[in-house]
Design goal:
Blueprint (H helix, E strand, L loop, with lengths): L2 H21 L18 H21 L8 H13 L4 H21 L8 E3 L5 E3 H25 L9
Antiparallel strand pairs: 1-2
Helix pairs in contact: 1-4, 1-5, 2-3, 2-4, 2-5
Amino acid sequence: MDPVVETCKKSAVDGMNMFLRNFAHVPDDKLNFQVTPTAKSPLRIAAHTALYMGRFAAMMRDRKLPSPVDLDAWLKLVEAEETAITTREDMEKAFRAGTDEVLAVLDSLTPEDLEFAFDSGLGFSFSMRQMMALPGWHATLHTGQIDFLQTCWGDQHVHLS
């Protein structure tokens, strides 16, 4: 197996585990905490992060980026999917299922697939190798948001486990 595939698989799993570990320290009474009325809550950030694992898997599997004709309608659909996740357990289930999908797609890629270029439809493209790195990077990025929100409610602990 290509070492890049193995690295991306490890990154996806590590990113998920780090996110879930940090999210486990969000108290139940803070799951829907919002810094401002228009800010995303920890649960909404977690739902977004979890659902994108499956979305990344679909993009890699289908060799296609989402290209919504009606961006507002697509964003409302994404919002509805995220807000439909209302519990920590449902979020974790979606996260693990999406990560499993990512791993399965990564395992299925051929050397030729690794050279595929996604067309953004916006005048630029990016490689399958870049897409393969997104699941782990995305989870790590949103872990930082959870860390920030924890400081907003006074949690200054470093959560290593």
